[in-house]
Inverse folding.
């Protein structure tokens, strides 16, 4: 049995209509944007809170983007929160290759608090999200954002976004299991 099927089995059969299982199943099986997924399950608008954002050079953390070590990248860490409740539903650590995107797209990413998926949609960028892996890990440093203990388990989804046939972004997204 592969890891993805094991996760699906853990969340129950599709006929199990428990909302938490439905949301976690969607995280595992779809390539939908995080904000779309969360707005559908939380029944409230989602706002992005940037924790950090900086331009730097590519490093060992971005090998799946096929970049030389001297390439410039935009690194963002952010929270996806309920606009009404203020609850943190997801944490994301993303690496964007500015050279692979239109400069207007990059400017909007840097100059706004909009999620990447919304910015790409606004500029009608034909993007494909490749879910590379899904699993569990300890919350660690994300625990304070979710209001859980550092040894609590979170669901982790790693994606690569392609635009114009090449990878332009890598994102690691963490979801607190108890919030769904």
């Amino acid at each position: 049995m592969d890891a993805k099927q094991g996760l699906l089995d853990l969340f129950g059969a599709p006929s199990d209509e428990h909302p938490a299982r439905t949301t976690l199943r969607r995280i595992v099986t779809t390539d939908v944007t995080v904000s779309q997924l969360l707005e559908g399950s939380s029944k409230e608008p989602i706002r992005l809170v940037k924790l950090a954002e900086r331009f730097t050079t590519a490093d060992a953390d971005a090998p799946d983007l096929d970049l030389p070590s001297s390439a410039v990248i935009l690194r963002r860490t952010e929270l996806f929160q309920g606009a009404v409740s203020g609850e943190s539903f997801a944490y994301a650590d993303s690496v964007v290759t500015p050279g692979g995107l239109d400069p207007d797209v990059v400017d909007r990413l840097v100059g706004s608090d909009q999620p990447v998926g919304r910015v790409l949609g606004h500029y009608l960028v034909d993007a494909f999200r490749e879910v590379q892996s899904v699993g569990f890990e300890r919350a660690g440093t994300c625990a304070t954002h979710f209001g859980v203990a550092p040894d609590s388990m979170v669901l982790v989804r790693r994606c690569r976004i392609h635009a114009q046939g090449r990878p332009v972004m890598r994102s690691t997204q963490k979801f607190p299991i108890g919030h769904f």
The longest helix spans residues 19-29. The helical segments are 3-11, 19-29, 34-42, 103-111, 116-122, 143-146. The beta strands are 46-57, 72-82, 88-96, 127-138, 153-163, 166-176. The chain has a mean pLDDT of 81.
